[in-house]
């Protein structure tokens, strides 16, 4: 099935539904097809425990146009919260299989901490772009007192290219917690520019290459030890 015909038959063309339809994890999907701008809030309680990550992902114009097709059910030219609700649900359901593209690490630990399913999720449309909002609770609150906690956002297959927003990319949610801060980890200036990588390079990648981790967007949370 061609990529075009696959898109046309998806009534609610969710982010991962489209990816699976053209062959998620194949060499064709190794090159990014969707771009998302990330803004994240780290939910920290007054005891310096991280309890969750609140994401807002704004998608590019192509994905926005694709995802909105068929959703204006009353034909009024606008997209209500109810009309966008199925899109939000199918996105967060699909994201579960891919760990929500969010990986929380304590210090230099290799294994990410387990997360609960998303809550408080919805999609908004600002007449130009779609933004998916959702909150990922940690399975267990994580004490950040005197520790560095790393939050990575990336798609291992690199089908989706994530990038933190230039303005207010990450912050502590709600009231500031004394001694705690969140900031974006500086990118390695010697890292490869994805725009300069050839199609031939991507064609050599296997489904388990985890190439996207090389372009992980990382937020560092620090809390002074009490």
Walkthrough of the structure:
The protein is of the alpha+beta class and 226 residues long. It has one domain. It is 20% helix and 33% strand. The strands form two sheets. Strands 1, 2, 4, 5, 7 and 8 form a six-stranded mixed β-sheet that branches. Residues 1-15, 22-30 and 194-199 have low confidence and may be disordered.
Largest sheet: 6 strands, mixed
Order of helices and strands: HHHEEHHEEEEEEEHE
Taking all residues together, what is the mean pLDDT?
A: 79
Query: In total, how many beta strands?
Result: 10
Q: Residue share in helices? A: 10-25%
The end-to-end span amounts to 59 Å
Structural class: alpha+beta
Q: Could you say which overall geometry the principal axes of the C-alpha atoms support?
A: elongated
Domain tally: 1
Give the radius of gyration. Answer: 18 Å
Q: What proportion strand? A: 25-35%
Low-confidence parts: 1-15, 22-30, 194-199
Question: How many helices in DSSP terms?
Answer: 6
Write out key terms for the chains shown.
disordered N terminus; four-stranded antiparallel sheet; six-stranded mixed sheet; 226 residues; elongated; alpha+beta
